[in-house]
Design a protein that fits this description.
Elements lengths: L4 H4 L2 E6 L2 E10 L2 E6 L1 H4 L5 E7 L4 E11 L7 E5 L10 E2 L9 E6 L19 E11 L4 E5 L10 E4 H7 L3 E14 L2 E2 L2 E2 L4 E12 L1 H9 L4 E2 L2
Parallel strand pairs: 7-12
Antiparallel strand pairs: 1-2, 1-4, 2-3, 3-6, 3-16, 4-5, 5-6, 8-9, 8-11, 9-10, 10-15, 11-12, 12-15, 13-14
């Protein structure tokens, strides 16, 4: 499987209150919504303005808060003033995913992006990385992935290779939250220093994508699709 335009065109570089991360557009019942990580949008109450990176700068988008998922799920849903993109369909579902399956995750690590000129409606394309489903947190609604996450992927989609092949379109099973760190000692001249450093363990954390659908169905105020 390759990551097709269905999903590539739906992923945006998001900036809000000095933070940068990733968001993506989903269509539910002929309305469009923006999904991202709650820790990116924690201060958004009802309405606000977010910035999406474009090829020439940024585009300011007025949004309404559809809802924050209940903790510990790190997922928020926004309703743009108008639809952002028309792209081929995708599915949002974590039903049928399984341990050890291959996944892709998309986003803008450290703000890096692919310039495309006019190909993608003036928006840059995200980077694509790969991992596997390493474990589940059934009680807290999280997916653990064996994949090397970087700052900037927060809020990006996790796409199941197996389910996408079965459906004939990308199937988003998760929303990137962050990665697990471990404190490791710092050694200088053979001596352990007093301050440790945080090592990226290579274990990512994502939320079940279906939590976003629950929020949308409880408050279906997305932008009507043209």
């Amino acid at each position: 499987m390759v990551v097709s335009s269905n999903i590539l065109q739906r992923v945006f570089l998001l900036a809000y209150e000095g933070q940068i991360g990733t968001c993506f557009a989903v269509d539910v019942d002929a309305r469009q919504y923006i999904v991202t990580a709650t820790h990116m949008m924690a201060n958004l109450q009802e309405r606000g303005t977010v910035s999406l990176a474009t090829e020439s700068g940024t585009r300011e988008i007025s949004v309404r808060l559809v809802g924050h998922c209940a903790p510990p799920a790190d997922i928020s849903v926004l309703a743009p003033e108008r639809s952002l993109i028309y792209a081929p369909p995708i599915q949002v579902s974590d039903d049928g995913m399984f341990l050890s399956e291959d996944v892709f995750f998309l986003g803008f690590p450290h703000g890096w992006r692919m310039a495309t000129g006019a190909i993608n409606n003036g928006f840059p394309l995200p980077l694509v990385k790969k991992g596997i489903v390493a474990g589940f947190g059934f009680t807290d609604g999280t997916i653990l992935l064996d994949g090397h996450n970087n700052p900037g992927f927060s809020g990006g989609p996790v796409v199941s290779e197996q389910l996408s092949q079965q459906a004939g379109m990308p199937v988003i099973i998760g929303v990137v939250s962050g990665f697990r760190c471990a404190a490791e000692p710092v050694i200088a001249n053979g001596q352990q220093m007093a301050l440790p450093w945080k090592q990226n363990t290579g274990i990512m954390v994502a939320g079940f994508a279906s939590r976003a659908l629950d929020v949308i169905r409880a408050n279906p105020i997305g932008a009507p699709l043209k």
